[in-house]
Amino acid sequence: MDNDDEDGALEALFKQLEEDLANDDLSVDDDDDEISEEDMARFEKELAEAIEDVGGVDESAGDSLLSSGDYGNDEQIDRSEGPELKTWQLRRLAHALKIGRRKTSIKNLAGELGLDRALVIELLRNPPPKLILMSDSLPDEAPSKPEVKELELPGSTTIDVDEVGTTEIEPQMELPVHVMSAEWSARRRLKKVQLETLERVYLRSKRPTNTMISSIVQVTNLPRKTIVKWFEDRREQDGVPDHRVAFKRSLSETVASS
Q1: What is the per-residue pLDDT for 148?
Q2: What torsion, rounded to 10 degrees, do the Cα atoms 158, 161, 165, 168 define?
Q3: Biggest CA pair distance of the chain
Q4: Which carries the bigger pLDDT value, residue 241 or residue 258?
Q5: Among residues 81, 147, 223, 248, which is most buried (max CB within 10 A)?
Q6: Second-level CATH architecture of 150-238
Q7: DSSP alpha helix (H) spans, 34-167
Q8: In whole angstroms, what is the distance from residue 226 CA to residue 10 CA?
């Protein structure tokens, strides 16, 4: 009997447990359908705290971004805060930028502008837009013309070297000798005293020796080439042969000597 009583008690207990579980499930379902005011208040509080936390994170991130942005602006301000260049300094830098850094003495340019050498190098290496526009507006340098060498005669006007060496005077036999000599003198731009000296030597010797020519160079201060050319032209004007004719005795002198 004892065993039957125990089995009956256990069955009653299990049945009660099943009923309790069924009642708990129904109460849970009802609670899921309806939210109490306490739950709403708790949810609102948690939501407000969550929003506040998110706002704090965003604010700190924004502050960090602003601080980094301010740092970048400070760098830009520091870079832009250089010495304010004057117009003549900008023009000089623009000219140096035009011809190139390799053709410019940075040391001399910095001393001329009164600026630090490092600043001048930086301006030429990374020129600002204003300096680039000014450099582009400068005209290109014209190529230098070759200089014409001139021969300067002491006490007289200068004549071209090519004129002395290559000018040829065509003889004009129909003109008197003194007229041709005057024209030749005008073309050669010789002084009157120099021309008179050459004329006196020519009257004594149509073919002066090297020693005589050296003496004429010392007296007249004329180039040796000019003096030799003058005697050649003068002999051509007078019809003097280029080479001397060998001396020949006449027939009467030959008979008399025999």
Answers
A1: 47
A2: -60
A3: 209
A4: 241
A5: 223
A6: Orthogonal Bundle (1.10)
A7: 37-80, 87-99, 106-113, 117-125, 129-137, 161-166
A8: 155
Cα–Cα distance for residue pair 152/50, rounded to 1 Å: 102
Q: What percent of the chain has pLDDT over 90?
A: 2
φ and ψ at residue 55, rounded to 5 degrees = -65, -40
pTM of the model: 0.27
Q: In this predicted structure, what is the pLDDT of residue 185?
A: 52
Beta strands at 158-160 and 150-152: parallel, antiparallel or unpaired: antiparallel
**Residue 229 burial (CB < 10 Å; 0-12/13-18/19+)?**
middle
Q: How far apart are the first and last CA of the chain?
A: 208
Q: Identify the CA nearest to 224 among candidates 234, 210, 237, 235.
A: 210
Predicted local confidence at residue 228, as pLDDT:
92
In angstroms, how far is CA 109 from the centroid of its own chain? 14
Q: Give the pLDDT mean for 30-40.
A: 63
CA distance 201 to 221: 15
d(CA 23, CA 32): 14
Closest CA to 169 of 154, 179, 157: 179
Q: For residue 146, which amino acid is it? A: P
| DSSP secondary structure code for residue 81 in this structure | -
Give the number of C-alpha atoms closer than 13 A to the C-alpha of residue 22, restricted to the C-beta side. 6
